[in-house]
UniProtKB/TrEMBL annotation:
The keyword Repeat applies. Keywords: Repeat, WD repeat. PANTHER family: WD REPEAT-CONTAINING PROTEIN 36. Residues 42-303 form the WDR36/Utp21 N-terminal domain. WD repeats lie at residues 269-300, 424-465, 507-548. GO terms for cellular component: Pwp2p-containing subcomplex of 90S preribosome; small-subunit processome. It holds the Pfam family Utp21. SUPFAM superfamilies: Quinoprotein alcohol dehydrogenase-like, WD40 repeat-like. The gene is WDR36. One of its GO terms (biological process) is rRNA processing. Residues 644-751 form the WDR36/Utp21 C-terminal domain. This is WD repeat domain 36.
Length: 755
C-alpha cells in the first residue's frame, strides 16, 4: 500500500501488507461511535487511512494517491486526494465520490447532512452528502481572504467560521449565503480554530505563536497566550472537569495552559520529533492523543500531580527511511530495521503489539544520563548498514571491517580486541563485506580492490585469495550451504562455493547498483534488489532468472524469512517495510527461465520460452518420448524401448531444478500428453525391472506423483500403469528385503563365530 505498488509482483511474489506505517503530516480525526460506545482514531498515512479503536486494532483503507485532507462525522470518513473527495462507510468501502473542484482540496468540515470542502484556489463548496450534489459554492479572493482554517461553532445553526492567511476571520450563514460578521484579526495568519467547552468561545492559533481565546458572540478577546516555538499547529481542550488547553507547536513541543489562572502549567517537550500534526483530548477522559509526521501516534494520560502527562500507549515506526532490514529468529516473526533516524526497531509480522523500539545507540551512556545535557546530544549517528559487520556462529565474536581496509575481531561481551586479519591491513581498499562460516573455521572478507580473501578464523592466517574482474559492493553468505553471493560494481552478481573457492554462477541483468541480496532458506534462490527499481530472483541450480518485478521506488534492503513464506523490502524515501508473500507455498507456480534483458514492467510473465537454445535443450528429453510414441511401428519398438537407457542417462546429468521442469512439461497443460506421461511411467518400470537405481526410481516417481496426482487419478490409462508399477515396487522391495536379510545374517555370523 501507500507509495509502493504492492500489486505488481509477477509470478513468484504477491504484495501482502506494509509494516511500520502509523502517521503522516495530516492531523488525525477522533470520532465517537454511539452504538459501540467507543472512540475511534482515524489517521492518514500516504494514500491510506488507518482507523484505530483507541485501545484496539487498526483497519486500513487505501485511495489511488496520497491523502491530502481527512475528516469524519459519526457515520462517514471523508478523505480527499487531488480535487476528488471520497466518503467511506464502515471504514471499508467508498459510498460517495464528490467531483467539482478544479484544484487540490486542503480543508474539510463535516456539517450535518452536508460536508464542506475548500481547495487551494480558495473555492468553498458545500456538498449534500447523500445526493453528492453541490448545495453552495463560494469564491474568495486569495489576495484579500485566503481561507486557512474552518470550523462550525457549537450551537450556531447553519453557520461556519473561516480563518485566513491574512489574519482576519469571517462568520458565514451557508444556508442564506450571507456574511454575518468579519473579525479584523491580530495581525498574523490563522493556523487553526478550535471550539472551547464554553458556548460562543473559540481558540484561535496564529502563525506568530499567539493563542487567542475569543468570544465570537460579543467579538471580545477573553485571554491571550504566547509560545515561542513558532506557529501554533493544533489546539484542544480538556473536557473532564479540568480547565486546561493544550497547544501543539512546529518543533514537536506541547504547551498546557491553565484557563482559570491564565498561565502555563506544564510543557511536554519532544513529544514528537517533528511538528505536532494533530492533538485531541478524549471527551470526558484525561487522555490526550497526538500524531506527527515522525510516523508516531501517542496517547498521554494526565493522572499525576503538576498537570503534566505521561506516555500511556503508542504506535511508532521509523521517522526517517529504513536503511537495512533483516529477519531475526527462526520463526520468521520479527524484522530488525535500522533507519536514518538513528534508531533500531523490531517489527512483528504477527501483530503490532509485539513491535519494539530498541532506541538510539549512545556514545557515553553514563554521561548522557547527567542533567543539563540536551536530548540526543551523545547519540550515535544513523545506522547505515550491517554490511561490513558479522557475528560468529557461536555469538561470542564480532568481525568488523573498516573503510581503511582493516578487519578486527572483538569479544561481544567485554568488547576486548581479539585479533586482526592481515599484518597491517586485510585489503588495500575499503572493506565492502565480511562473513564467518557456519563452523567458525573461516572468515571471508571482500574489499573494494576486487579481492575475496579467506582467513582462518582463530589464527587469522590467510588461506586463499580470489581476484574478481571488478570492484565489489557487497557479499552475503548462506551458511548452511556454504554459498557466497557477491555483488559487483558492474551490476553483476557472482556466486562462489566456499568449499572449492570457485565461482560457480554469474548473473547479469540489473541496470543499476545492487543494493542488497537475500537467499531463500534452502539456498536455491538468490534474490537481488537494485537501483533500477527491480527485484530479481535467480535460481541457483539451473542458473536462470525465474522472476523479476518492477517497483515504484528502488528497494534499498531486502530479507527473506527463515520459513520462506515472506520477502520483506524497504525503499528509497519510504518509511514502511513491505511484505511479499511467496506464492509457491500456497499455489501452483510454474517457473520458466527468463532472459537477462527481461522487461520487468510487463505485468504477466511471457508464456513462450524466452531463449530458443534453452528451449530446445530443455525439451530434448520430451521429444525423445514424442518420437517414440508417434512412430507408426510402436509395437515393434516397444521391446527396444524397454531396454533403451538414453532418456534415463539424460535425466541423470540434469540438476534437480531441470528435472522438475521436465516432469512438469509432461502434463497436457505443460505441452505434453497422457501418452508421454505413460511413457515416463514405463521408464520407471524399466528401471525397476533392471534392478538398478532403486532410490533414483523412487525419487522420480515421488516427484511425478506430487506434480501430476490429480490428472493421474482421472486418466484410466495412467491408473493402469500405476497399478503395474505398484506391483513391481512390491516385488522389487521383497527382493531387496531378502538381500538385506542375507547380509545381516552373514554379518551376525561373522561377529559371533570363533574363527
Amino acid at each position: 500500500l501507500n507509495q509502493v505498488n504492492l500489486t505488481r509482483g509477477h509470478v513468484l511474489f504477491a504484495g501482502f501488507r506494509a509494516l511500520g506505517m502509523y502517521s503522516g503530516s495530516l492531523p488525525h480525526v477522533l470520532r465517537f461511535h454511539q452504538r459501540h460506545r467507543e472512540f475511534y482514531l482515524v489517521v492518514a498515512v500516504g494514500s491510506s487511512f488507518h482507523t484505530y479503536n483507541v485501545s484496539g486494532n487498526p483497519d486500513c483503507n487505501a485511495l489511488l494517491q496520497d491523502i491530502t485532507c481527512l475528516a469524519a462525522d459519526r457515520m462517514l470518513v471523508f478523505a480527499s486526494y487531488g480535487s476528488l473527495l471520497h466518503a467511506f462507510a464502515r471504514n471499508k468501502e467508498v459510498v460517495h465520490i464528490y467531483e467539482g473542484h478544479k484544484a487540490d482540496i486542503h480543508l474539510l468540515q463535516p456539517f450535518g447532512d452536508h460536508v464542506i470542502s475548500v481547495d487551494v484556489d480558495n473555492v468553498l463548496i458545500v456538498w449534500d452528502v447523500q445526493s453528492e450534489e453541490e448545495y453552495l459554492q463560494m469564491n474568495f479572493d486569495k489576495a484579500v481572504f485566503a481561507v486557512s482554517a474552518i470550523m462550525h461553532p457549537s450551537t450556531y445553526l447553519n453557520k461556519i467560521l473561516l480563518g485566513s492567511e491574512q489574519g482576519s476571520l469571517q462568520l458565514w450563514n451557508i444556508k442564506s449565503n450571507k456574511l454575518l460578521h468579519s473579525f479584523p484579526g491580530w495581525g498574523s495568519g490563522v493556523t487553526t480554530l478550535e471550539q472551547a467547552p464554553a458556548v460562543d468561545v473559540v481558540a484561535i492559533g496564529l502563525v506568530s505563536g499567539y493563542i487567542i481565546v475569543h468570544n465570537i458572540k460579543f467579538d471580545e478577546t477573553l485571554m491571550k497566550f504566547e509560545q515561542d516555538w513558532g506557529p501554533v499547529t493544533t489546539i484542544s481542550f480538556r473536557t473532564d472537569g479540568h480547565p486546561v488547553m493544550a497547544a501543539g507547536s512546529a518543533i514537536g513541543h506541547i504547551a498546557l495552559w491553565d484557563l482559570e489562572e491564565k498561565k502555563l502549567i506544564s510543557q511536554m517537550r519532544n513529544a514528537h520529533t517533528t511538528a505536532i500534526a494533530g492533538l485531541s483530548f478524549v471527551h470526558g477522559e484525561p487522555l490526550l492523543i497526538t500524531n506527527g509526521a515522525d510516523n508516531a501516534i501517542r496517547i498521554w494520560i494526565f493522572d499525576g500531580p503538576g498537570g503534566g502527562g505521561r506516555l500511556l500507549r503508542y504506535r511508532m515506526g521509523h521517522s526517517a527511511p529504513p536503511t537495512k532490514i533483516r529477519y531475526h529468529g527462526q520463526n520468521g516473526q520479527q524484522i530488525l530495521s535500522a533507519g536514518q533516524d538513528g534508531t533500531l526497531q523490531s517489527f512483528s509480522t504477527v501483530h503490532e503489539r509485539f513491535n519494539k523500539s530498541l532506541g538510539h545507540g549512545s556514545i557515553n551512556k553514563k554521561k548522557s544520563k547527567k542533567k543539563g545535557l540536551r536530548y540526543d546530544t551523545l547519540a550515535l549517528p544513523p545506522i547505515m548498514a550491517f554490511a561490513s559487520v558479522d557475528i560468529s556462529t557461536c555469538g561470542n565474536f564480532a568481525v568488523i571491517g573498516l573503510s581503511t581496509g582493516h578487519v578486527d575481531v572483538y569479544n561481544m561481551q567485554s568488547g576486548i580486541h581479539r585479533g586482526r586479519y592481515g599484518k597491517e591491513k586485510a585489503h588495500e581498499g575499503a572493506i565492502r563485506g565480511v562473513a564467518v562460516d557456519g563452523l567458525n573455521q573461516l572468515a571471508i572478507t571482500a574489499g573494494s580492490d576486487g579481492l575475496i580473501k579467506f582467513w582462518k578464523f582463530k589464527t587469522t592466517e590467510l588461506v586463499h585469495s580470489t581476484n574478481l574482474a571488478s570492484s565489489l559492493s557487497g557479499i552475503l553468505l548462506h551458511r548452511d550451504s556454504g554459498i557466497l553471493g557477491i555483488a559487483s560494481d558492474d551490476f553483476s552478481i557472482s556466486v562462489l562455493d566456499v568449499e572449492t573457492r570457485k565461482i560457480v554462477r554469474k548473473f547479469s541483468g540489473h541496470l543499476g547498483k545492487i543494493n542488497d541480496m537475500a537467499f531463500s532458506p534452502d539456498g536455491r534462490w538468490l534474490i537481488s534488489a537494485s537501483m533500477d527499481c527491480t527485484i530479481k530472483t535467480w535460481d541457483l541450480p539451473s542458473g536462470c532468472l525465474i522472476d523479476s518485478f518492477l517497483l515504484d521506488s528502488a528497494a534499498v534492503s531486502i530479507t527473506m524469512s527463515p520459513t520462506g513464506d515472506f520477502l520483506a523490502s524497504s525503499h528509497v524515501d519510504d518509511l514502511g517495510i513491505y511484505l511479499w508473500s511467496n506464492r509457491s507455498l500456497y499455489s501452483l507456480v510454474s517457473l520458466r527461465p527468463l532472459p537477462t534483458d527481461h522487461e520487468s514492467s510487463v505485468i504477466m510473465l511471457p508464456r513462450t520460452c524466452p531463449a530458443q537454445g534453452i528451449c530446445w535443450m530443455k525439451m530434448a528429453f520430451l521429444f525423445q518420448f514424442l518420437r517414440l510414441f508417434y512412430c507408426e511401428h510402436y509395437n515393434c519398438l516397444s521391446q527396444c524401448f524397454n531396454t533403451d537407457t538414453s532418456p534415463l542417462n539424460l535425466l541423470k546429468v540434469m540438476g534437480p531444478s531441470n528435472i522438475e521442469t521436465e516432469l512438469r512439461g509432461l502434463a497436457p497443460e505443460g505441452g505434453g500428453s497422457v501418452e508421454v506421461m505413460q511413457s515416463f511411467l514405463r521408464l520407471i518400470g524399466m528401471m525397476l525391472n533392471t534392478k538398478c537405481d532403486f532410490e533414483l526410481a523412487q525419487a522420480y516417481l515421488a516427484l511425478f506423483l506430487k506434480l501430476h496426482l490429480k490428472i493421474t487419478s482421472s486418466e484410466p490409462a495412467l491408473l493402469e500403469e500405476i497399478s503395474k508399477l505398484s506391483a513391481q515396487l512390491e516385488e522389487t522391495w521383497v527382493h531387496l528385503q531378502t538381500l538385506f536379510n542375507q547380509s545381516l545374517c552373514v554379518l551376525n555370523y561373522m561377529k559371533s563365530a570363533l574363527l
